[in-house]
Amino acid sequence: MEAATHPGLLASLAGELGGRWLQHWQQISGRKLAYEAEARHAGLAWADEIEPLPRELGERIKVRLGVDDRLVLLPQGTIGPFGQAISGLTVPGRWLSVVPVEAKPCIAAGDGN
Hints:
Blueprint: H1 2-5, H2 7-17, H3 19-42, E1 70-73, E2 88-91
Antiparallel strand pairs: 1-2
Helix pairs in contact: 2-3
C-alpha cells in the first residue's frame, strides 16, 4: 500500500518513467501545493479574534455553531417523542436569538398530542 501511495515513491516513479508521467506528477503536486497554500491563507485560528470589535456595538457576533446552545433540564420521568425517558434537551442557540441569555426555561405539561 505504501509503495502505491507514498508521495516520495510516486515522485521517484514519475521521474523514472519520465515524459507524460513526470508532467502529470508535477501538475498534481503543484495543484496540491496551491490548495495547501490557499487553505493556510483562508484558515482562522480558533483562539484568535477575527477582528477587534468596537465596544459600543453592544452585541456579540456569533461565529461558531454550538457556542450559544442551551441545555434545558427536564423533570424526572419525562418521556420523549420516541417513548423513552429523557432528562434534558439541547436547544440550538440559533433558535434562541431573541431570548435573553439569563432567561430560565418554563416547562409545561402537554396533552400528549
